[in-house]
Amino acid sequence: MLKENKLLIGKNGDKELNLLLDKANRHGLITGASGSGKTITLKVMAESFSSAGVPVFLADVKGDLAGTACMGEDSESLAKRVEKLGLTEEWSYEQFPVHFWDLYGMNGHPIRTTVESVGPEILSMMLGLSEAQEGNLAIAFKIAEDEGLKLIDLKDLRSVLQYVAENKNNYTLKYGNITSQSVGVIQRSLLTLENQGADNFFGEPALDIKDFIMMDNASGKGFINILHAVELFQSPDLYASFLLWLLTSLYSTLPEVGDLDKPKIVFFFDEAHLLFNALPAYRLKQITQVVKLIRSRGIGLYFISQGPTDIPDEILAQLGNRVQHTLRAYTPTEQKNVKAAANAFRTNPEFNTEEAILALGTGEALISFQNEKGEPEVVEKATILPPQSKMGTIDDMTRNKIINNSILCGKYDERVENDSAFEVVSKAQEEKAAKEEEERLAKEAEKQAALEEKQRLAEEKAAEKLRKEEEKKEKEEQKAAEKAAKEAEKARKNSVGYKLGKKVADKATNKIINKGLNSLFKNLFK
């Protein structure tokens, strides 16, 4: 709760454990075993920030934070707890301005962004790609950027990947090696992502990150942005990748503002261990840099997990405000975790930190916030305040009423389909297909014409051959006839009748000639 411009989170007798607003962007950590009260602490801190006019973003992975939008309900147990804390006169039940969000658009305003805004690195995490496959994805993004292909939704990315794979020989020298196998793995991973409903996340209108940073003018409270993550949490990689995208988007979008009297917005990352599971060293280095520098943009980050060992040491060193709930230590590993949690605090000489962690009851915690000098306070035992808003979830009618009455109602509800890579690539593919079909038809026509010409020539050749054969046959027949005639003539001449007739004829002829010659000579010599 807000008290004297400080956030009162817990008490130990008369001692108040306050989180200073101007140190809230030094980030924080809430840890403890399941059922130890982490969610209540998160809720109390979120309400307190809202009361101070600081917008909040948190992920509701169990569905029990939605009651923040409704007035708290009095009960005997809560009344006793308030009385025990000595807050009877100051206590009041309240409701807080809430915007509900949902990647799937079912239980809140849809959250969408473009594929190109997410980028190949975060998308590779969503898809669970290897380093080589991530390299191919990065090439596809770069080609899309260079050729003006807008990557808005997953079908855009699919079409670009197909386009790049089909034309890889044209890009290898400029962009590096592209393998069909890697592209195939990416395509299958995208299909899996779509089956998880992630295609709802990619598209337009894209989220304006500044819509998270809103104030309720009537009450002066900061809006608490609650991401309904019950279904999303069933896909841990998608959940973690979304939160990392959100973190990097905030860093890249908001300007530097230096140290402020209070943060511009505070983010709570529940189940934070998922953010860092199997994270490559180079990417952890990038995220660590973001965590270090993002406070200069007026942003506070608070990680919630079971133990400090869930958070990489590089990140852990940046978390100045800490709340530790009880831990269990039945195994050597668990005992080691308790020791690590105790060593993270500035020692209080009045008690043993390790023993205190194991002895904490539900709703109790060890707390160390930063003081005015930015130094961690000595760790203190404390009882966490109860929430001022309703505990637990709300019914669908109440949720829908809040969503429909929101100033954001209608801004993101309807998906917009603008021309993007899919349309450009599809048009190019259609034109290519039409050109290929035209070329195919032309080749077929040319082939048919050649076939017909070949057939014509063959027919002409066959006709010519037939003509020549007929001529040859005719000549042979003529030659045979001439030969037969000669042979017949020869046979006739060789016949007895012919020879006898010829002899008679020759004799007659000679007689006539002789007679003529005699007559001639007589006339000459008269």
Description:
The chain has 526 residues and is an alpha/beta fold. It has 3 domains: 2-112 and 206-404, P-loop containing nucleotide triphosphate hydrolases (Rossmann fold, 3-Layer(aba) Sandwich); 125-194, no CATH class; 498-526. Helix content is 49%, strand content 12%. The protein is rod-shaped and about 195 Å long. It has 16 helices and 13 strands. The protein has helices at residues 38-51, 76-84, 115-127, 131-146, 154-166, 168-175, 180-195, 236-253, 273-276, 281-294, 313-316, 332-343, 353-359, 396-404, 421-493, 496-524, and strands at residues 2-3, 6-12, 15-20, 28-31, 56-60, 98-102, 109-110, 224-228, 265-269, 299-305, 321-324, 364-368, 380-384. The model has no long low-confidence stretch (mean pLDDT 90).
